[in-house]
Amino acid sequence: MKSLFSDLFAAGSDTSSITVEWAMAELIRNPRVMARARAEIATVIEPKKVVVESDIERLHYLQAVVKETLRLHPPVAFLLPRKAESKIALGQYIIPEGARVVVNVWAIGRDPRVWADPEEFRPERFLEEDIDFKCRDLKLIPFGVGRRICPGIPLASRMVHLVLASLLQRFEWKLEDGVEPENMDMSEIFGITVARALPLRAVPVVP
Ligand code: HEM
């Protein structure tokens, strides 16, 4: 039980908090998207009520914001390594038996052959096209795929949406004096997870 819980804790905490931090950074950097996300929350949730889990399914734009965040900033950029059980042909490649296969999800999310204007943070793309985290064409697989797919998707999804919705519902967000959205440092640190090189520093303002 001890190792099960330490696995769950390790796999679930960093990944979810990094996702919220990247989402907030992208929202602050893209005021148009921030305004639309906040407007949706203000329309869907009655004034003075706090956001609860059951509201998430009605927050379609917020869901698109989370997908767009995980497209550009998948916390587990290379998934877990695979090993080929036998020689296999994959597209134009031959994978030899025993080869270690690393899937670069980060690169798929920024590939112009897969996504139009990949560097642009535009959640609307997920309103135009119905893509979920288990999509068959493997365009969006921040939780991995197949038998080893992340078992924490339901919890992660609830927590990330709920935390984001709460932060956006109650506050307007601004950057520290002297920092402009267009000059924000969006560098990454590659480790087991891909975090922001400089932690996000944002100032909540009560509207
Ligand atoms: C945004 C949040 C999260 C992301 C992006 C994420 C992503 C991933 C990825 C990419 C894998 C490897 C899947 C593969 O290689 O196919 C994985 C595995 C795993 N995740 Fe998550 N995860 C998140 C949250 C969570 C949470 C909340 C939990 C549980 C509390 C969790 C538990 C696990 C476990 C136990 C594994 C190993 C599964 C196995 O090896 O069979 N994850 N996760």
Please count the helical segments: 6
The H-level CATH homologous superfamily, spelled out, is Cytochrome P450
Could you say how many structural domains there are in total? 1
The radius of gyration over CA amounts to 18 Å
**Strand numbers in spatial order across the main sheet:** 1-4
The unreliable regions are none
Instruction: Sketch the topology as an H/E string, one letter per element.
Output: HHHEEEEHHHEEEE
Family: Belongs to the cytochrome P450 family.
GO molecular function, one term: monooxygenase activity
Cofactor: heme
InterPro entries: Cyt_P450, Cyt_P450_CS, Cyt_P450_E_grp-I, Cyt_P450_sf
Write structural notes for this entry.
This protein is of the alpha+beta class and 207 residues long. The protein has a single domain (12-75, 109-205), classed as Cytochrome p450. Helices cover 40% and strands 12% of the residues. The protein is built from 6 helices and 8 strands, in the order H-H-H-E-E-E-E-H-H-H-E-E-E-E. It has helices at residues 2-29, 31-44, 60-72, 105-109, 125-128, 153-170; strands at residues 82-83, 88-90, 93-95, 100-101, 172-175, 188-190, 194-196, 202-205. It has a two-stranded antiparallel ribbon. A two-stranded antiparallel ribbon has the order 2-3. Helix 1 packs across helix 3 and helix 1 (2-29) packs parallel to helix 6. The termini are far apart. The mean pLDDT is 94. The site of protoporphyrin IX containing FE (HEM) has 23 residues, from helix 1 and helix 6.
